[in-house]
Amino acid sequence: MVIKMANSKTSEKKNNHLKYYFNYLLVGVFFLIFFILDMTMGLRTSTTQLLTKIAYSIILATSLNMIVGFLGELSLGHAGFMCVGAYIGCFCANFLHTVIPSPLIVLIIAMMIGGLVAALFGFLIGLPTLRLKGDYLAIATLAFGEIVRTIFKNLSAFGGAQGLPTKRYDKSLYIIAFLIVFITLFVIQNLKRSKHGRAIEAIRDNEIAARAMGINITYYKLIVFIIAAGFAGIAGVIYGHLVTPVANTFFSFNYSIEILVMVVLGGMGSITGSIIASTLLTFINVQLTTQLSGDMAALKYLIYALILIAMVLWNNAPALSNVREKVSLHHLLAWFNGKFSSKKPEKDSQTAVENAVYLKEEADWKKIPTKIPMDSILSTDIKPDRTTEADKPEKSSKQ
Amino acid sequence: MSTLINGLCLGGIFALIALGYTMVYGIAKMLNFAHGDIIMIGAYAIITTLSLSGNTIAAIIAAIIICTVLGILTERLAYRPLRGASPLAVLITAIGVSYLLQSIAQLIYGAQSIPVSIGSFGAVSVFGLSIPISSLITLALCVIIMTALTLFITKTKVGIAMLAVSEDRAAAQLMGVNVNMIITLTFAIGSALAAFASTFYLMQIPSATPTLGSMPGIKAFTASVIGGIGSIPGAMIGGILLGIIEKFALSIPALAPYTTAIEFSLLIIILLVKPTGILGKKRREKV
């Protein structure tokens, strides 16, 4: 058993390694297919636009996943950070276009500025609000998103309610957008694998225990918030170079929820999941908005809502934990093992059974709650009077 | 002065919604994001029954019944399976339910606003100011409902069971309280209050859209946080305060476009300065 555990640990390490490169591979292959298609045959503008949309959705979803999946806090203001990036970045870009002739350099500088300003906003908002937790933080970030939107809506320097007119980038915007996706993945994955990443996950799993271990909670929460906000800002700048004018209505609470749906659908904490889910949802979204018109557009939100509810119920409902285990990948693999090895000589089936036993043991192990209800263990006041009272009946029973 | 009275009326509606929020939050320990959308459904229920029967009272009663049933249903189907799951999961589900209700309403009734007129009661003039009677009724009913709720919670057996559940769910269960039943009941009461809120909302703003409930819902949550979440008088005070602030901000032309920003800034400030709100109890974090 011990050896097997060790084995499984090394294989897990290998798996992690594979997982680590898998995301790059996934995005890389996806990008290359379209890039080669574009080079050889030339893609239609609508396709490259879709690709750009997918790219910034991936950036948004993975960065929000940092907050929701790794840090375990709910932020409903991600569109707000994107809004800051889009407005500030494109405002700068509009100015820079008069000075610098190359649109590529302008775009890069605009992305830097937009990202930095959004990160600064992340810092400014995070510093006070990260003292809050759970529902309060969610509402505070929601409030922040709406505040930002209202302010940009009313500033005439940023185009007011009509929105900020921007200069659209040409078709090749999607190449730059996917480069940014790679940078995002690089930063987030390395952060996740580092000491800091483990500290962040420790905060998610048990904040009090993490604090007791000497982890600086505010520092790490702020870091996550700043990085996520920065990437959202960059995504905003990409958006601003794709769509003109940059209108405040796009960055409403609804869009924050849309990003959240991507994260939840992909699985909270899973970067691969976020990538796949944001690609899929963006594609579906674009298809639906072109196909549906008028009131049928609500169908999109109906689908989002059902996805949210179904995914969360499926992943979190305590009553479904048994079913979940049965359908889990581990179990399916064991089942396959059993199926195939039954045709083979006895020896193999023996190992298959062992495997199954091991898997079951592992499953049992997983059932043990990782979150120890510290409340119930430590919060009982141990008073001398009480202990004597509690001791008395025991003593009397002994006598 | 008329701004103040308008603010009081709006505040009354906010207070009613906030009461629902605060009860659910206090007892089920969850932020029911869909509360605002139950108000929206109530408004559509009123419109539909009004067009069918033409009777205002019947419409209001129908709205109350539909909202209550809806509240119980959402609790049963969406929230109860998640009891004991992480608060994040519950919150996301609540957002999902909110969107579900909005999109269903839009699929049925369309996105454009539907005008409706619930019988207007006219206005009385006091000291030269004309006050619409519907606002007076809103305020009076708010006070009545608040008092009734306070009495219900502190005096009746079920109410005390509610208090027990909000204090310590596990201990309450051990004492023989049917926790699931109590939480369902809380949702039922909260949703019935939402139906009242939708009635008064339609009296002041006589049209309905599928997103009617989301902004008042979030603002009412703001109100209940300002007043101290979990506290019934707190929800009342917070709601009225927020209503007055909104109307005053709207009456000043320079501030009017920023009304929402001002209200939400107030929320953030309150959360920072006194996270428990004006009347909230401090809850110590046990290790």
List the defining traits of the structure above:
heterodimer; A: 399 residues; mainly alpha; ABC transporter involved in vitamin B12 uptake, BtuC; 2 domains; 78% helix; globular; disordered N terminus; disordered C terminus; B: 287 residues; two-stranded antiparallel ribbon; two-stranded antiparallel sheet; 4 strands
Describe the structure.
The complex is a heterodimer of chains A (399) and B (287). By secondary structure, chain A is mostly helical. Chain A has 2 domains: 280 residues, ABC transporter involved in vitamin B12 uptake, BtuC, CATH 1.10.3470; 48 residues. In chain A, 78% of the residues lie in helices and 0% in strands. In chain A, helix 1 runs antiparallel to helix 6 and helix 3 runs parallel beside helix 5. The longest helix of chain A has 39 residues. The radius of gyration of chain A is 25 Å and the shape is globular. Chain A starts with a helix and ends with a helix. Chain B has a single domain, classed as Orthogonal Bundle (ABC transporter involved in vitamin B12 uptake, BtuC). Chain B is built from 11 helices and 4 strands. Chain B starts with a helix and ends in a 14-residue tail after the last helix. Chain B is mostly helical and 287 residues long. The mean pLDDT of chain B is 84. In chain B, strand 2 and strand 3 form a beta hairpin. Helix content of chain B is 72%, strand content 4%. At the A-B interface, helix 5, helix 10, helix 12 and helix 16 of A face helix 4, helix 9 and helix 11 of B.
